[in-house]
Design a protein that fits this description.
Oligomer: single chain
Number of strands: 5
Shape: elongated
């Protein structure tokens, strides 16, 4: 029995030594591969280009996930009415295609209106999202992403808020409450910069009531009509600055 145990221990010791030697051998080979890679990368232009192209193919990712993150960040920090543009993308080495101003002109303002928002590299600023247009670029109403998204947010917010008044009495008191609720909501958006206008009256209007948005037939049919007018702020996509020299006055 003792001899058997000694034999087993001896076999285990031999096995450990064997594994240790194999690990050392593999480690040495791995070091040799690393040194070979460094040498070829530094001396061989062909090998350098192959590695560079392989890394590019592996690390080149679609921008959809990054843009979703930028939308969320801008919404949380500025609001949905801020265009998700002129924002840097973190942890990006370079765009897959480098574009200049001349290259972007046809993408940003195409004839068919289906704009492509470029992601560009700027010296000293990094990789930036440089465009905020929709695929309906020829429309004055829905040309910009933030305008469309702001309207969606306003529509959904008002619709969800007025759901509490379903089956309430379709009378003046209810109309006043609804108008006050929507006006307070829009006033908050205006104060935060989401609506254009120097005063609340210029930024939004809410209409509801008999003879204003409804007829007696609407009330008999159980319909309450509310009309909301808003002036959504638009981005300054192009900034033109004019310099002139004037004569010395004194």
């Amino acid at each position: 029995m003792i001899n058997q145990l000694n034999n087993d221990l001896s076999l285990k010791t031999d096995r450990k030594e064997e594994l240790k030697n194999k690990y050392a051998e593999l480690n040495a080979k791995e070091c040799d591969k690393t040194e070979l890679h460094k040498t070829l990368y530094a001396t061989s232009a062909i090998y350098h280009n192959i590695v560079k192209d392989a890394l590019f193919q592996v690390n080149c990712l679609p921008v959809s996930a990054a843009m979703a993150g930028i939308y969320t960040m801008v919404d949380n920090t500025r609001g949905v009415w801020k265009a998700p543009a002129n924002v840097s993308i973190a942890n990006v080495v370079s765009p897959a295609v480098n574009l200049a101003n001349a290259d972007q002109e046809d993408l940003n303002v195409p004839v068919n209106g289906k704009a492509i928002n470029a992601i560009r590299s700027f010296v000293g600023e990094g990789i930036m999202v440089w465009g905020a247009r929709t695929l309906d670029g020829n429309s004055l109403d829905w040309r910009y992403i933030n305008v469309r998204r702001t309207m969606i947010m306003l529509e959904e917010s008002v619709k969800n808020a007025t759901r509490a008044y379903v089956f309430e009495l379709n009378v003046a008191n209810t109309w006043v409450n609804i108008k006050s609720m929507i006006s307070n909501f829009l006033n908050g958006i205006w104060k935060r910069g989401g609506l254009a206008g120097s005063s609340p009256e210029d930024a939004y209007n809410v209409h509801v009531g008999l003879g204003e948005t409804m007829t007696p037939e609407d009330i008999l049919e159980g319909i309450m009509r509310v009309t909301v007018l808003v002036a959504v702020a638009r981005p300054a996509e192009f900034i033109e600055i004019t310099f002139q020299q004037q004569m010395q006055k004194s």
